[in-house]
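User: Reviewer 2 asked us to show a designed sequence for the structure in our supplementary figure. I'm pasting the structure tokens here. Could you produce the per-position amino acids so we can include them in the response letter?
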């Protein structure tokens, strides 16, 4: 998939040129991560699902690191009668790379969209 994709949350909307740009934005050290896993003896065929799991973790960290000000402003505005920390935790728990990322036509990306991209990265990375 080479089409633009969009990150949509209640506090930020951001467009990325394509899925690869998105992946490398939230997981910039992906290639070194792959090399490290191969050096540990992990087979290339087993990397896709492992990388997907790591991508999900990096996505949450990316949201908190890059959009913490937007997140705080949103929670301050919306959590007048609730615990701000509880609301922030609930909001972050609902953010995922399958629910909050869609293509320009509004189709939600699924795990297979990412796995296809990972296969290409793994294939094109000297490991």
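Assistant: Here is a per-position design you can include in the supplement:
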């Amino acid at each position: 998939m080479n089409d633009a994709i969009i990150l949509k949350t209640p506090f930020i909307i951001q467009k990325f040129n394509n899925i690869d740009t998105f992946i490398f934005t939230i997981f910039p050290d992906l290639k070194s991560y792959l090399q490290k896993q191969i050096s540990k003896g992990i087979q290339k065929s087993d990397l896709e699902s492992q990388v997907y799991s790591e991508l999900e973790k990096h996505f949450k960290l990316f949201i908190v690191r890059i959009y913490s000000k937007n997140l705080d402003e949103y929670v301050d505005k919306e959590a007048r009668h609730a615990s701000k920390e509880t609301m922030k935790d609930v909001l972050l728990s609902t953010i995922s790379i399958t629910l909050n990322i869609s293509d320009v036509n509004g189709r939600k990306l699924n795990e297979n969209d990412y796995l296809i991209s990972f296969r290409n990265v793994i294939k094109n990375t000297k490991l």
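For the response letter, you might also mention the following. The beta strands are 5-8, 13-16, 101-103. Helices lie at 19-26, 30-39, 44-78, 84-93, 111-124.
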